[in-house]
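Re-run requested by the PI after the first attempt was lost when the workstation crashed. Everything re-entered from the original request form. Ligand of interest: copper (II) ion.
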Amino acid sequence: MSSTLHTPAQHASATKGAKERDTYLTADYGWKSWLFTVDHKRIAVLYLISIMVFFLIGGTFALLMRAELMTAKGDLFEAETYNKLFTMHGVVMIFFFLIPSIPAVLGNFLVPIMIGTKDLAFPKINLLSWYIYLVGGGATLYVAITGGLDTGWTFYAPYSSTYANTNVAAAAIAVFITGFSSILTGLNFIVTIHKMRAPGMTWFRMPLFLWAQYATSLIMILGTPVLAITVMLLALERTFHIGIFDPALGGDPVLFQHLFWFYSHPAVYIMILPGMGVISEIVACFSRKRMFGYHFIAFSSLAIAIFGFVVWGHHMFVSGQSAYAGFVFSFLTMLVAIPSAVKVFNWIATLYKGQVSLETPMLYALGFIGLFTIGGVTGLFLAVMGLDRHVHDTYFVVAHFHYVMVGGMVMAFMGGMHFWWSKMFGRKYPEAMGQFAAVVIFVGFNFTFFPQFILGYMGMPRRYHQYNDEFTALNVLSSAGATILGTGFLMTIVYFLWSLKWGQKAPQNQWDAKGLEWEKAQSPPPTFNFEDGERIVVTEDAYAYTYEESHTGSGHEVKK
Amino acid sequence: MSDHAHSTTGLVHHFDDIEQQHEAGTLGMWAFLITEVLFFGGLFGAYAVYRSAYPEAFMRASSHLDVDLGGVNTIVLICSSLTMALSVYAAQKGSKRGIIMGLLGTMFFGAIFLGVKVIEYKDKWDHHLVPGDNFIFEGNPGGPEQLYFALYFAMTGVHAFHMIVGMVIICWMIKKAHRGDFTPGHHPLVENFGLYWHFVDIVWIFLFPLLYLIGAHSGSHT
Ligand SMILES: [Cu+2]
């Protein structure tokens, strides 16, 4: 099965043993071959390394906050420092971890392979997007070092534009820059999925991961430019005091909120849709069944992307938006629950009478389904205007979006990394460790964030470094959970790194899974993904698992 | 990072054939232009909000713009679109000279447009109409008129930035055209850049009436 690639890279490695197969990892050596690569898989690895750096930075900020909140008094940090901690935590985690996590790492790696082509449509633009990301990330770190930012990740005017004493303009520029990396990724995916599918890979044969990436990309190219122009206006207001968000000069701070949330609510779906795509892949594989309701899941991704653009006003129920607007936004927000629930029910129906096995990716997928459901349902609570007045700006909101973002997206990212780890690096992670860490993360997560629902309902406001004594017990519980959660993530990082060198060598198809990346591409794949000269032709639908056909569902073992 | 480009056809390694490559490029450009629409859309949205909140102030402020210069610039930009279209046509016909002439013409009109813009900006600066702490409108500081000028500078500024980027790309394209990189069957850069340039023109077609013409009937402009 060894392949010979006619690339310039081949000569560099021609001295290696003849039996050794060239993979994208070994095709070329040296830092230049990485920093100037146009291979989508290498760019995915570059992204993986960089988002992990930001994940660790953002996670450190979170742990420092939880340390402060161990006690009711503000004894560890000044209020100002605490403000900077939660702001930087939000900015780093959202713009530099969550948004690029699945699209830029797993999406970059998998989209071309899953549709049976050699690369994304615009490989150089793909590399450019990573450099833009680095520049934006560097600018953010510069802000963090030179006094931080204390506006919250939402940059609300007029505090950000007039009163804050931190480096708002630089932070706004950093976000502005980073946005373009996400636009370029989205653009690349859309064109690639439209134009580069292998013969036979029709739209409705595509794995649902691709539908999710496609819907995400639509949001990226439609929403991100609005954020860009918003933070640009903010930077202008901040620097030149042009009055655009300043009520004293006739400007309207609520306009900032409108523009900001026009992007940032859909951005929530940038952060969750790709996760849903990963879960579809994992659930089908570890149930060994065809996906139940394939078309519904595919279209629900698009529906979420579309609905997502018309619900931003639910962030302004208490910002002086008219009650009628609030009513409409409340109603539309509830509609988003429909396509989300369609997905959940279809996953559960896929599990039903499947041959379910509980390897690490599946543990994360099941965790996702449970936690995302809690996060989603509490989102409905918040969509109800009356209830929102009560829990607005409390820990209830914090718990809600962490259930969706961490319980949802991060779980999906972890599940996806375990699922495709052997495909990316050719070695298996230690399975027992993986399962153990998954349980640790699940337990730690719930201890961290479930108490925050109760705290919020009791009235504890978010973004304060001290609180009333009666909230102490639940806060201690939450902080304890955060250490468990952090331990779980560290364990995972350690055994992943360990497995790169000492992990068991993986076969081409570790999970007996369906899909071109498993059936046609080696682990790890060669530079052009498939065997040299092989033209991929797709002849069957996605998820052609045969458990149902060979077995009518009484539940005992079946030879795969 | 080598190009993997096949010198005779221009086919890049990861595409099956030249047609797929062209289609991908065109779709990519359209998707990018949609992004641009949303980018300007944020500004147009802000404009709509503030104009409906302060219609009189916007008219008063607008009457301080020079409609004649704005009108001249509109004609200039339409001419640049024409030369751009001629350049694309020449590319289809395989006339290297035609491509270069069209691009030079586009460059020429683009430069006139930016030159006029500089004159206008300078005039606003001299009359303290640039938003900020030095803003004075008919003897008064601040106020909704300043919002108008903030939007005027933001919108025309972003538009001018797009023109400057376009002109840099034109320089690069002239070099490529000179080298003979464009053939009748393969000149995606010319086609796609044409789309971009027309888009930038169309933005101006919206900006001109929204910014220059709302105060015209008050008759107080110079
Ligand atoms: Cu929202």
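Saved to the shared folder this time. Chain B touches chain A at residues 1-2, 13-15, 20, 23-24, 27-28, 31-32, 34-36, 38-43, 45-46, 49-50, 53-54, 57, 131-133, 142-144, 146-147, 150-151, 153-154, 158 (CB under 8 Å).
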